[in-house]
Structure formats: structure tokens, C-alpha cells
Amino acid sequence: MSETIDFDYLVLGGGSGGLATAKRAAELGARVALLEPAELGGTCVHRGCVPKKILWNAAEVAHHLHHAGEYGWSPPAATSFDWPGMAKKRVAYLERLGGIYARQLEQRGIVHVRAAGRLEGEGRVRAGEQLLRARHIVIATGGLPYRPNLPGAEWGLTSDDFFQLPALPARAAVVGAGYIAVELASVLAALGSEVQLLVRGNRLLKAFDARLGQQLTEAFVAQGITVQFDHAVKTVEKTADSQIVVTGADGRCEPFDALFWATGRVPNLLQLGLDTVGISPDPDGVLRVDAQARTPVEGLYAIGDVTGEPALTPVAIAAGRRLAERLFGHGNPPPIDPEMVPSVVFTHPPVASVGLSEMQARDRFGDAVRVYESAFVPLYHAMTEDKPRTVVKLVTTGDEERVVGLHMIGPGVDEALQGFSVAIRMGATKADFDHTIAIHPTTAEEVVTLR
Predict the structure, then answer these.
(1) Is the domain of 17 the same as that of 126?
(2) What keywords sit in the KW lines (predicted)?
């Protein structure tokens, strides 16, 4: 029988949330073990936020090259994107990040167990041949791409596979309407692929204010992306010449070089042994916790994508740090308010949102809601033939017109949102925005000059 090794805190998962909670607990004096069989950093670092933003930057350069002649530059006669070269640089950077995380664990005295953990009850976790025990255990195992259950689904790729492609597909189909789907479609199109976005419903970005999805659709169509609404995929086949043939519920068949499933993610909970401690995911597949990240089992907690909270890296990091501070510190940090979590969709143009959508606000506050909106061509596009509009939308409620939502799409809104999020979280009113001196000429000035 293997010897039981005791710790104060066992962290299952080495992604953003797991790393954050492990490091904070160790800084507060806890003896910590972090269990992660794969690379440190998780989805965000290796298959999500970081590599995605690198490719978004590459796509940004492509858009500027497209406009170079209109800004007085003599662009090269032909341009092509070096996907293998960019991939090599990207991987090297991500490997450096992994090394940084490993050193951070070592510097804090955190034991990195290179194995997956499985709960065995009574504060014990099996990790390969080792048996670990702690008073506090946190599940931070993240999520996995969802693959639909339909004939031929295995021929489709996921967002994880995207970063492993040896070359860009000449013709690609992306299935989905959420942020992963539109980000994939946007990058592929900017880097040279012909893209079709296949949407089962009738709008993009259903989780965001409807105005943003409408404007993004217009931008995509102008960029040559084909957006097909009310398109349910029925079957997928692979031909002898490696073409992927997608058949819709309406009988339409189209061939592609690659098909990407981007219809959501599911919590990574299947191999954890939850049954040994008497709990199970809810019907949505998530592990529900209270505002203190506690499961129904004493001493067992969960943070990040497994909990159904906004599946964003900063949310997992904040939840992890606050949990460690509650368990090993002397304070009681406030819980995260999911309605005040800012989010950005890295498309071209980018989408930025915080707070309630207009529909959510009207459902809650009724006639007390007042909406301000501005749609305009930003100064950058005054010099270009294409004239995409930037949209800024402010949602307020009550006689004092407290700001409860801000929704934007256009160049620069990704960087502009953070500061406004602070103001909105602190209870800013429309008058507070009105009394703020604008920075001219910027997109951000529209937020404080809305009438």
C-alpha cells in the first residue's frame, strides 16, 4: 500500500485558475501540491487566449496591409502568410511561458505532481501511484471542446486542433455562433481562407447584446465571410481526396478543406471520481458551487470552467486567488459578480461588453431602462474605401440613470472597455459619464458624449 503524503491544499488542474490558487495559497504559508499531467498553463496558454491573440495580431497586420495603399504606402505586389513560421515562433513563446510557470511553482515550494488526480474520499486524492491527502481540495480542471453527436462528426476539428494545423485550409467551414466560432472565422478569413460560418440559429453572439451580433454580421459579410443562418448540420463525410462534405438538414451539400466545430465547451469532470464523494454534475454538466466556491462536500471546492461561471481566464484567476485567501488568509474577499465581468471577442472588428444587455435590463427594470446609442464610421476608415461602422451602446436604469451595461464593436473597443468596467462596477451614472472630459479623437470619447 502506498504511503499517504499530507498537504494543506491539493489543486487538481494546472490551468489559469489552478495556478493562481496554488500560488496564492503557498504565499500565505500553505503546503500545496498541484496535480497536472499536461503542460502548465492549460487551455488559455496553449490552446486559447494567448495563441489566439497572437493570431489575432497577425490578422490585424493583414487588415492594415489591405489598407496600406489608402494610407499612402506602396504595398508589396503580393503578400502571403507564413503559417508554419508563425506557428514555430508561437510554440517557442508558449514553451517559455510554461517554463516560467514551473519556476514560479518551484520558487513557492509547490509540489508539481505530473499526474491527473482522482478523488477517493476523506480528503484523499489518487495521483498515479501516489496517495495524497489534504483538508482542502479544489477542482480546477477546466473544459474541453464540445463535439456534436451526429454521423461523421469525427471528421470535424475543434478549437484545440486549430493550433495544430500544418497549413491553413483554402476553404473552411466553422459551425457555431458564439465567441469561439466567430473568432475562428475572423482569423481564418483574414489570413487567407475562404470561410463559411454555419449558424443553427438566426444571430451571432447570442450571449451578447443583439446589436453587437447584428453589426458583426454586417462586418463579416463585407469582409467576404459567408454567414449562413438557420443552417443545421445533419451529416459529415470525408471523400477519397480528403474533402470534408457537410450536409445540412435542408439537404444542401458543400465540400470544404476543413470543418471546425465551435459549438461550445464542456466541463472536464469525467475522470475525477466525483461519485466516490457523493456528488455529480448538474444536468448542464457543470459542478455547482456557492458564492464561496464550496461544493456540497466539506473541504471540496471548484473554480473556473467546471462551475458554470463565465468561462474566462480572469474569472478563474480571481476565483482561485479569493478562495486561497478565504482558506489560508485572514480576510473574506467579496464573491465575483458574474454580471460585472467584462468580456471581449477578438474578431475584426473586436466586440466588447460589460453588464446587462438591453433585453436583460428591460426584463429586470422594465420602463425604467433608457438606452443611448451611437453608430459612426471611425476616423481610421475615413481614409479607406470600406466604411464599417463602430457602435457604442449604453444601458441605464432609474431616475439617476445608473449605468448597468456598455456594449461596443469597432477598432480599439477591446482596450477601451477595461476602464469603463471599473466605473460601471462602482455605480457610475450617465451624469458621471457626461461630466467626464473626452479624449479626442478616439472611439472611447463616444461613451462620454452620448446624447
Answers:
(1) yes
(2) Disulfide bond, FAD, Flavoprotein, NAD, Nucleotide-binding, Oxidoreductase, Redox-active center
